[in-house]
């Protein structure tokens, strides 16, 4: 069933970025110049108007689709495909740059699938937003160097389908983002557990009363986990 969410209003003001949590691993990112992107686009969590860019980190039914709606300019697949080969993306559309860093992933039958997942990086107005996708292992020094400095980190907190929350705590420590935003969770218990873990790293919790929030480089909080309302599925 397709679930359409109406994100209303003008684009965010100059110097800012807007994030809306659509559910599962999908965030809508909007920029002042009217560019929009949806992470982990799966075809059934949509907005009323199609975005300009969609990213799909892994070839799993809730994280990708082969049926991309008309009007989307760039559909970026984050795994090895017969058509495109190794996933390498670096797209700039007006004031939004989107690039990826591929990572390996556990295979369905055991073993490892090389470059089966991508971390997607969104850069706009001096802010760097990193979506970890379906990450299954710790990041190497090479990964960290390619990702660079992180302002906002979108992290799956399912506590097992990707990695345990304690393992993601190590990823967060290595990336040192100012803001962490959870995704890919199923109920408040997982959020509470994750917040307790992050308090141990000196992060404070902030519950935002809306599924949409705007940040600028100047107002970006430090060491904060931001939980948007209506999240989790």
What does this protein look like?
The protein has helices spanning 141-147, 165-175, 188-199, and strands at 3-5, 16-23, 26-30, 36-38, 45-47, 53-56, 74-77, 90-93, 96-106, 112-124, 127-131, 152-156, 179-183, 204-208, 212-216, 224-228. It has a single domain, classed as Metallo-beta-lactamase, Chain A. The mean pLDDT is 92. The longest helix is centred in the last third of the chain and has 12 residues, at 188-199. The strands form 3 sheets. It has an 8-stranded mixed sheet. A 6-stranded mixed sheet has the order 7-6-4-3-2-15, with no helix packed on it. It has a two-stranded parallel ribbon with strand order 1-5. It is globular and about 45 Å long. It has 233 residues and is mostly beta strands.
Structural class: mainly beta
Q: How would you characterize the largest beta sheet? A: 8 strands, mixed
CATH superfamily: Ribonuclease Z/Hydroxyacylglutathione hydrolase-like
Tell me the radius of gyration.
16 Å
What does the oligomeric state look like here?
single chain
Helical segment count? 3
CATH topology title: Metallo-beta-lactamase, Chain A
Mass-distribution shape: globular
């Amino acid at each position: 069933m397709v679930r359409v969410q109406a994100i209303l209003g003008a684009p965010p003001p100059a110097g800012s970025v807007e994030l809306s949590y659509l559910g599962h691993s999908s965030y809508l990112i909007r920029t002042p110049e009217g560019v929009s992107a949806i992470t982990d686009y799966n075809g059934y969590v949509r907005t009323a108007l199609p975005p300009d860019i969609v990213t799909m980190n892994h070839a799993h039914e809730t994280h990708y689709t082969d049926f991309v709606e008309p009007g989307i300019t760039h559909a970026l697949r984050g795994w090895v495909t017969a058509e495109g080969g190794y996933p390498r993306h670096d797209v700039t559309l007006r004031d939004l740059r989107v690039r990826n860093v591929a990572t390996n992933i556990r295979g369905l039958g055991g073993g490892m699938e090389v470059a089966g997942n991508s971390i997607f990086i969104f850069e706009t107005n001096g802010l760097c937003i990193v979506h970890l996708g379906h990450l299954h292992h710790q990041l190497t020094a090479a990964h960290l160097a390619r990702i660079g400095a992180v302002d906002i980190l979108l992290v799956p907190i399912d506590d097992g389908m990707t990695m345990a929350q304690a393992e993601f705590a190590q990823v967060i420590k290595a990336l040192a983002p100012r803001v962490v935003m959870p995704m890919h969770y199923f109920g408040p218990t997982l959020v509470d557990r994750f917040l307790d873990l992050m308090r141990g790293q000196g992060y404070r919790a902030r519950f935002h009363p809306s599924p949409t929030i705007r940040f600028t480089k100047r107002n970006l909080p430090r060491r904060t986990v931001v939980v948007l309302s209506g999240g989790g599925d």
